[in-house]
């Protein structure tokens, strides 16, 4: 993590159990980690558009919750990196658990009849979420949260690979693109943690714009994991829509950003 040589700003001394590699209050007096904050926009704006599109298509509420969950993570992460306060850290980390539980439910229930609800899986995921929350509030160890989050992601990876290997192999490109982008973000997150001193030294010698792009790896973690998570929701939606015999089509907003438009099955 970051050395304790940072400036003081609007939100005072950090109270969070984590302080990342970006120097505090360098860009703005009001934002502790500027680039780590604004990079969360990718987890806020596109999922809101996805939720609206999903609602208009009349799809199941669980997928609207998936997009809203990703937005909640982005907002929580924005607040955390803006303030570096412990309460805001929880607003970032706990929604990561809750939203991923929604992802797990969607992916593991994708081959059920429409409007069916698995109360057992809901109860299991609620128990997991509550247990993680209670333990983490008492035992303020970030590694515990990271391991629990990693376990949920592993469940998604295993299930996704199974589906695109044995059920819908034509969805492999979307699945592996989502996974690859997410893992690239995870790699950069680790580099940012392990080589923080070297990255900070590099930022002192590089031009400011170049330094941001080449060394702010935690911000890139937000961008890549936000995009990877968004693509995972599209994958989950595409699997579900295909099973229900709808006609899913990927459309690009402004010719750039992928969105899934689902049309009902044509009546025969």
Automatic annotation (TrEMBL):
Required cofactor names: Zn(2+)
Keyword Membrane in annotation: yes
Residues reported in the UniProt entry to bind Ca(2+): 19-20, 22, 24, 33
InterPro entries, alphabetized: ACER
Membrane association type: Multi-pass membrane protein
Any Pfam family: Ceramidase
A single GO cellular-component term on record: endoplasmic reticulum membrane
EC number(s) reported in the record: 3.5.1.-
Main subcellular location: membrane
A Gene Ontology biological process term: phytosphingosine biosynthetic process
Involved pathway(s): Lipid metabolism; sphingolipid metabolism; Sphingolipid metabolism
TM region positions: 64-83, 95-111, 118-137, 143-167, 174-191, 219-239
Top enzyme category: hydrolase
GO molecular function list: metal ion binding; N-acylsphingosine amidohydrolase activity
Domain of life: Eukaryota
Binding residues annotated for Zn(2+), in chain numbering: 81, 218, 222
Keywords assigned by UniProt, alphabetized: Calcium, Hydrolase, Lipid metabolism, Membrane, Metal-binding, Sphingolipid metabolism, Transmembrane, Transmembrane helix, Zinc
Claim: Amino-acid biosynthesis is one of the keywords in the record: no
Reactions catalysed, as given in the entry: an N-acylsphinganine + H2O = sphinganine + a fatty acid; an N-acylsphing-4-enine + H2O = sphing-4-enine + a fatty acid; N-(9Z-octadecenoyl)-sphing-4-enine + H2O = sphing-4-enine + (9Z)-octadecenoate
Subcellular location: Membrane
Functional note: Hydrolyzes the sphingolipid ceramide into sphingosine and free fatty acid.
Family stated for the protein in its record: Belongs to the alkaline ceramidase family.
Protein name, UniProt field: Alkaline ceramidase
